[in-house]
Amino acid sequence: MASEGHEQPDGVEVLETDRRDLTRTRVERSPRQPLDPGEVRLGIDHFALTSNNATYARLGDELGYWELFPALPPWGRVPAWGHLVATESRVAGIEVGDRFHGLVPMATEVTLSVGAAGGHGFTRVHRGAAAYRFYRRLSTDGLEEADLWRQTLLRPLFITSFVLDRDHARRHASTGVVLTSASSRTAIGTAYLLTGRGVPVTGLTSARHVATLRGLGCYTQVLSYDDLATDPTALRVRPGEQIVCDFAGSARIRAHLGAALGGSLAAWIRIGDLRESGDGAPDEGERFFAPDVIAAQARDLGPAAFDAELEQALDGITAWSGEWLAVDAVRDAGALGTAWRSALDGGIGPTGAVIATLGSLRRADDSRSSPD
Ligand SMILES: NC(=O)c1ccc[n+]([C@@H]2O[C@H](COP(=O)([O-])OP(=O)(O)OC[C@H]3O[C@@H](n4cnc5c(N)ncnc54)[C@H](OP(=O)(O)O)[C@@H]3O)[C@@H](O)[C@H]2O)c1
């Protein structure tokens, strides 16, 4: 199992990012503090790194991501989705060895104040969105490390794909969809679900990702941003209304796409912010915030029915992604810093992903991956 041999360094080690220059990182070490009643200490077995984390950092001030795991300014702790193991507990209902999935700092361990704990997991005492405060209890029986990694990586991304697809089915039936940054994992999952319902889906992506995306088979049509800029008629969408799911958040792409769609543009859903600031899309369209939509859909459908539908969709996507998604392991501070900068500049390719296990972070020689 992944947690066997889970290392317990003497203190806590965490990767911090300079909020003024996200490419700068350092490893901060601090002594372990005794637990207060209501607190649990959890070792962080592993966490996933994608551009999603880069967006958490870019929107850290706007959407409160820096507040989830506070650090001394100018440093910030970028949240990541991870797999945790309770190592010490002063919470009724959480035993040492219990496993959870939820948001973590990029660290060796984390101490959380628990509001409520039960069979499904626990809720952290925090002001953040419900989805960011909940830690889902995991049963790891029979799961190999690769399965656990895949769950950690795919679940947080594809829950967004899942609610986007449900939202589209409810509000727009079979209206065609255009996805920007079509090579992001969340876009790929969304395309997979939409195409599975027979919805025509166009993917817009960088030229270097076109062939890979065509090979995945989840898009009806794949075009590069350059193709669209040079020839707007290359966008062969069915006449009628089109919904844009905008993962790129780029004003330039938006302008080209808006011109190509003309009167066919029915709705613009702003989901991602993958491009550097300065190229951000203007504040038009509806801002999609997954935690709110997840909460609303779970409320409407009932939590049990929502979970059952989600698990079914995840099973399908997980099996399909096994055909093309290659997971890289990162085990030390230097490699994590490099992977982080790669996530920042879009360098983690569509068919790759990074899983970090920082039990070994304390053994890294150099705590600074860029000069202070
Ligand atoms: N609003 C919400 O509630 C919500 C929920 C979940 C995810 N999201 C957002 O959805 C987006 C996708 O997340 P993900 O984790 O699925 O991403 P991902 O798989 O890591 O995305 C990788 C892709 O993003 C594009 N990209 C990333 N950084 C770039 C850069 N600096 N310059 C140019 N292109 C870059 C490239 O796609 P192309 O070449 O195809 O452009 C790249 O292949 C993120 O912005 C994330 O925060 C939002």
Structure description:
With 372 residues, the chain is an alpha/beta fold. The protein folds into 2 domains: 11-141 and 325-357, Medium-chain alcohol dehydrogenases, catalytic domain (Quinone Oxidoreductase, Chain A, domain 1); 154-292, Rossmann fold (3-Layer(aba) Sandwich), CATH 3.40.50. Helices cover 33% and strands 27% of the residues. The protein is built from 11 helices and 17 strands. The strands form 3 sheets. The protein has a 6-stranded antiparallel beta barrel. A 6-stranded parallel beta sheet has the order 12-11-10-13-14-15, sandwiched between helices. A 3-stranded antiparallel beta sheet has the order 2-1-4, with no helix packed on it. Helix 8 links the parallel strand 13 (242-246) and strand 14 (265-270). The radius of gyration is 21 Å and the shape is globular. The chain starts with 10 loop residues before the first strand and ends in a 16-residue tail after the last strand. The model is unreliable at 1-7 and 360-372 (pLDDT under 50). The structure holds NADP nicotinamide-adenine-dinucleotide phosphate.
